[in-house]
Amino acid sequence: MAGDTRTLTIKWLGDTSSVEKSAKSASGALGKVGTIAAGAFTGTAMLQGAEQLVGFLGDSTKAAIEDEASQRTLAKTLENTAHATHGQVDAVEKYISRTQAATGVTDDELRPAFANLVRGTHDVNKAQGLMQTALDVSAGSGKDLGTVTMAMSKALNGNVGALARLGIKVKQTVPDTKALAAAQRNVMHAQAAYNEAVKKYGPNSSQAATAMSKLADSNAKLKDAQTKVKKTTLDATTLMRELNKTYGGQAAAAANTSAAR
Question: Where are the domains of the chain?
Answer without folding.
Answer: 20-83, 84-173+235-253, 177-231
